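FW: tagging you since you asked about this chain on Friday. Here's the raw sequence from the shared folder, copied in full. Didn't touch anything.
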Amino acid sequence: MRVLVVGAGIGGLALARGLLTTGHRVTVLEQAPSPRTTGSAITVWSGGVGILRALGVSTDGLGARIDRLETRTDAGRHLYAIDVGYAARRLGHPGITAPRRELLARLADGLPEGTIAYGRRCAQVKEDGSGVQAVFVDGGTVEGDLLVGADGHHSAVRRQLWGHDPIVPAGWATWQGLADRRSRITGPHHGLMINGRAGFCGLLPAGPDTLQWWFSLPWHPGTAGAPALPLLRERFARWAAPVPAVLEGLRETEIEMFPHHTHRVRRVWGTGRSTLLGDAAHTMPPIVAQGANQALEDAWVLARLLAHRSGNPVSVLRRYEHLRSRRVSPIARLAATEYTYRYHPPRYDRMVPSSLVTRAYACWLYATSDFLRGRERSW
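HL: got it, structure written out here
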């Protein structure tokens, strides 16, 4: 079949790789004029890393492996630590944090020439009984047998299929970036999660000498536009080490800000020969670090279904939506609570042994992944 994929993000490129390996013809339609280089880093847990490897994407030297996640208060008091290495041993794949641009480059590497068409902004989806057509803003068109909207949380394909844009502000925003020569702040495989009344700070190694940092705060659309650095220093400069050292080296031009959005995950994502994938289907805040991981899971499941289920392809799309909506809906609901960012007295966290949190986290990672659960026979 000829499959049109709208959006050359992580989910769209992963789907293209999966479909090409099973003999489908794929065209990825990306509105940007060239490969995207914005965004800081992406954390990919065991299921996502397993999917990347199964798709032929090498993770050797990609970003940094995460072995330990420590949670502290803004005063520097240790609460608990998650041994991520335990999950890696149990689940068969590590967790890594990598610059988004590097992950996208590896997903695109090796795709046949012409698979990705840049500068193609989709404005409309048309369908008849035998195929589907993507119509671009410049009036051009391209036809296929199926169309998958993988064009992010402001998806044009979703607006076309659902008739509106369902996302709403979640009440928080994140300011983030990558800092070179700063990995010593956390150590090569050690992440820090720091919570206080002013907000939340996260620090993760994202390469041999690269640090991903982010600050999350309550936010409303009416407060957009103010310089970020004065705000971050006002809120976080008096926190315990290593937060002041992170703030000291920042420059305004290095800071990216994105508001958190959410929407209810529908049971049916598409109509006819069209469906959705990733943030287009289930926009969620980044608090559980599952946005990219669930996009990879979507791509894996859809590619496998199209490879192994015969018959009407429309029924295959609806089966995909049924399977994935059941899996991702509770994850999106949890993310929408912004539960980790909402400050609560740390004495409760101190009462929970790190060993218990570690085992619970490994179980949760397993539960969120169709790839790790290996349930293809029931699809």
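FW: The two ends are 20 Å apart (CA to CA).
HL: agreed, and The chain has one domain: 2-168+262-378.
FW: great, closing this out.
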